[in-house]
Structure formats: structure tokens, C-alpha cells
Amino acid sequence: MTRIERSIEIERPVSDVWKFVHDVTKGNLWQTTLLEAQQETEGPMRVGTRVRETRRFLGIRIETVWEVTEYEPITRSSVKGVSGPIPLSGSYLLESLDASTRFIVVGELEAHRFFKLAEPLFARMAGRELEASLGHLKDLLEAEG
């Protein structure tokens, strides 16, 4: 199991960051590998919500479906993959810092087959991609403010 964790401080209130990162239609604005995402279940985001994503990573188009397993507005949410080539899970943790927010992303993946052989390289690349995505998120949200 590989764990990837990164955080960033964003000069926006925690409620603004929460709302933006949980809007499936805005994911490709800040996540560098996300091509498209679509919520498969109706209604607001909650435990049990499923989302289908298409990403491009290492030049490969990857489709996954993930399900929300924890949803505590403005503090934390968690997901787990229910289909796709790599078993994964992850969490968003948000901490209010007066007028700004610390946004922490944790991802865990269990690589199999080819990906198992390249797991250390894969983890480093995924960590860099996450850092780039968090930088995009910070730039977008702080420009709105």
C-alpha cells in the first residue's frame, strides 16, 4: 500500500474551499490529470454518491468509479474506488485557519501487476501531480477572492 499526502494553505474561507473541491463539474479546472467527471447518483453529494472519472496519467486514459464513504461538510470527506485498474482510496481534510484554509489530500493505492513493479516511480509521479493540482487550486480560489 502506498500513501501519498500533500497539503496547501489557501487564502479563502474553509466553506469556499469545501464547496469548490466537492463540485464534480469543477474538478478538471484544478486537477491536472482529470479529463472529465460525472456524478452517477442523483441528489447532493453524500455518503454513497458515485462519480465516474476519466483521467490521463502516464499517457494512458484511465476510467474509474469512486464512491463517497465519509462526508462531514467543511471538515472531511473520503472516497474509495469501486472500479478501475488500481484499487484506491482517499480523503480531503480541511482546517480553518482564520480567513484561510489548510487543505490536506491523502491518497492510498494498492498497485497490482505492471503497476506493482513501478510503484515507487508511480507514487513519486502521483505526488508531483498532486502538488501541481493543489497549486492550481490555490491560484484559482485566491484569484476569485
**Could you give the distance between the termini?**
38 Å
Low-confidence stretches: none
Q: Determine and state the CATH class.
A: Alpha Beta
What fraction, in percent, of the residue positions are helical?
25-40%
- Radius of gyration using CA atoms only: 15 Å
Rounded average pLDDT: 91
Q: Rough shape? A: globular
Enter the CATH topology name.
Alpha-D-Glucose-1,6-Bisphosphate, Chain A, domain 4
Strand content: 35-45%
How would you classify the helix and strand content by structural class?
Answer: alpha+beta
Main beta-sheet strand count, sense and barrel state: 7 strands, antiparallel
CATH superfamily: START domain
Number of domains: 1
Report the count of strand segments.
7
| Cross-sheet strand order for the largest sheet | 1-7-6-5-4-3-2
Number of helices: 4
What is the H/E order? EHHEEEEEEHH
CATH architectural arrangement: 2-Layer Sandwich
Write up what this structure looks like.
The chain is α+β, with helices and mostly antiparallel strands. The chain has a single domain, classed as Alpha-D-Glucose-1,6-Bisphosphate, Chain A, domain 4. Helix content is 30%, strand content 44%. The protein has four helices and seven strands. A seven-stranded antiparallel beta sheet has the order 1-7-6-5-4-3-2. A hairpin with a 4-residue loop joins strand 5 (76-83) and strand 6 (88-97). The protein is globular and about 45 Å long.
